[in-house]
Design goal:
This protein is α+β, with helices and mostly antiparallel strands and about 675 residues long. It has three domains: about 160 residues, Galactose-binding domain-like (Jelly Rolls), CATH 2.60.120.260; about 230 residues, Golgi alpha-mannosidase II, domain 4 (Beta-galactosidase, Chain A, domain 5); about 210 residues, no CATH class. It has ten helices and 41 strands. The strands form eight sheets. Strands 19-20-21-22-30-27-26-23-24 form a nine-stranded antiparallel β-sheet, with helices on one face. It starts with a strand and ends in an 8-residue tail after the last strand.
Length: about 675
Amino acid sequence: MKKRVLGWGAISLLAAVSSVWGQASWTFEKPYVWARDENAVALEKQGDRFVVRHTGQQDWCLGGFPRIAVKPGDIIELSCRVKAVSSVAGVGVSTGVILRDGDGREVSWIYGGTQVMTPCDWTELTSRFIPPANVVTIEPRLTGYQPVTVEIQRYVATRVGSVNDRVKPGAQESAQLENGRLRFNVDGATASLSVTDLRTGRVWSQAGGEAGWMVLDAKTSDDKRSIALTLLDPETVREFKAVFALEEQGAELSVAVTMDGAMQRPLNFPLPFATRKGDRLIVPMNEGVGYPVHEEHQGLHRMIAYGGHGICMGFFGVADDATGAGWMCILETSDDAAMDARKGAGGMWVAGPSWDAQRGQFGYTRKARYVFFETGGHVAMCKRYRAHARLTGLLVPFSEKVKRVPNIDRLIGAANIWRMGKGAGDPVALVKEMQALGMRRLLWSANGSPEQIRALRELPDVLVGRYDIYQDIMDPAHHEKVGYKHGDWVTEAFPHDINWAGPSAAQWRRGWRVKAKDGEMIPCAVICDSKALPYARARIAKDLQAKPFTARFIDTTVAAPWFECYHPDHPMTRTQSRQYKMELLKLIGEFGLVCGSETGHEASVPFCDYFEGMLSLGPYRVPDSGRDMLRVWDEVPERLAKYQVGEAYRLPLWELVYHDCVVAQWYWGDYNN
């Protein structure tokens, strides 16, 4: 982990820059490279460029700029040209700076830069930022992870101006809204927001000034119910607008955020409310978790709201363990949203909304709603969210679903049976034996011959299903290497219907990895969701001609995120991805089948009838639970015991909202005994 210093060639480059910009610009003074893995990085100079070769799996950096003094309001521009290649797809290389305060302490290790992903031909990286008010010096670097070779030209930091002349008169005064239950306050001087719950007296504050936010303009509506703010994001020098509105009667505060143009990184706004010991962070990760904010936690981090391995319902919140008082944040536009959980003041966990780009743009208006509670804790949150789900059409109970698919009646209380491994015996005899032993209702998920499927269907209280998937496609060129062609791969979709994670064909999206005969792990490609439906319709129709199934399990559809696609023939936003995924699940019901999918997400509640994995908390499953299903665990992993089956942390959030809409089950490789 030693620095490797390159001591030649840098001074002449610095002199060339200084002769043009004087003291307003800087470049490498004593270039060096560092890597967390031992002996994993090398630096050399080739003509007008530096070349970094990193072979490790962990992080690395190229540094050597001087520490640059900055003052409040300075606008700094970083620019360089990079070219990057890697044996691993989608490896990121980022510009950015280290922020340090007046005592030389690091405030942030990566700030204000931008990123490219491999494979990447020569690309100009340019970003602008304003250092936060408590920052005295910055130090530019280039950083990354995993094996990669990077060429770098003309990396320069430039002071290009000041933002102070953009602040309108009166913008940095205080503004306030009040409705008898809540008082909302904006401190224009520090860009800090706070909400006082007038019923409990608690003040929930957001430290906007610490993040460097600047209020450029503030206008209160004539009816005193809303405040429109124009703010500056210091890490991008981008303006955005936020309208906060206080409900006339309820203890609710809504916010609508708009921004024009491109978006380089997530916008974390509004910032999290501060917490204190005794508070609990309420997170709808799968079934649900409550994290005491003062404890150390593994598996708690930024979680997307647009896939099953994040938050599975569009809310999160904080509740006081002693009184049940607190707040929840409902993400009313969740397709490109996340819950940003991190350590706040005093080492306490906090969480706030985070907005991702829509295909590189901010796009549509982003909306969130804060609801404050006097009592009730997580139960009150779930009651409020159930009302939200009903209003938005997500709450579709079994009493409605059974009208479309009568066999749903057999699902309630049914044990889900998979048959794995060799020598598992005759499924018909096995099911009859189970029923004789008192397991009356059964969901047989393990397929079978046409004769077996017909026989199983004739048994009372039995649903008969099979596994299916419309995500992974193995390149036919690799079939010989892996030794087989999986019957569920949509091979005919390759390569024209696969998803691109970026604008280059080399950026095809990688999916499930398959072990080849030589031990190499080869990734499948991911089909574009916009192209999956015709393949599914044809496969299922043909399947049902021979096997009269009554159920079907569609793997990965809601476990995987809503994917963007950059393929020129079928570009797609996350919103469109979600819509196509739901059309796929809806198709199962149109065939009269009970529908299941992996892990689970509320977007699919109107179309899915059971989830395999909703009861399992994703980060706390047994290791490799998606592949190593037959292993018997003699010793319970610590994280599983603490969170997965720990009564001090698990919360039945999903059941409190959707108990009468979907059957929640454990993940097939995750053991709760």
